Amino acid sequence: MRHLRGNEYEAFSAGIATHGMNQYAMRVMQEAGVDISGHRSKLLSELSGQNFDLVITVCSRANESCPIFPGKTRVVHVPFDDPPALAAGLKDEEQILDCYRRVRDAISEFIRNIEKAGI
Fold first, then answer.
1. What are 74-82's contacts with CB under 8 Å, separation 24+?
2. Handedness of CA 39, 44, 50, 55 (dihedral sign)
């Protein structure tokens, strides 16, 4: 979101659990010209006190565990595939990367056309 539409939206990222940055995610984002190597996984609690107009959950587990946000925050679920789940059991690195590319490209398309999604 920051890379494609940062002049229109202020984006934050957090989740319901933390984990290290995924090496495959970093590689496919770098292919798209986005360096996320300095990012880190954050819990939603680290953004407490921040007001949001819109919260987009991107996986079913997050959607099911999404807290209630105060005020006029709109919560929307967009069910993108989970790249590690798609790549589970694959041994070929190029096939694994293709799973991550597929999800990266789906998210990119969504961001580019977010208004068409009614958001």
1. 76/119, 78/110, 78/117, 80/106, 80/107, 80/110, 81/106
2. positive
The domains of the chain are located at: 2-117
Phi then psi for residue 41, to 5 deg, are -75, 130
Q: What gap in Å lies between CA 1 and CA 42, rounded to an integer?
A: 17
Q: What is the pLDDT of residues 62-109, one digit of tens each?
A: 667 777 777 788 989 899 999 999 999 999 999 999 999 999 999 999
Residue 75, classed as helix, strand or coil, is strand
Note the CATH number of domain 2-117.
3.40.50.2300
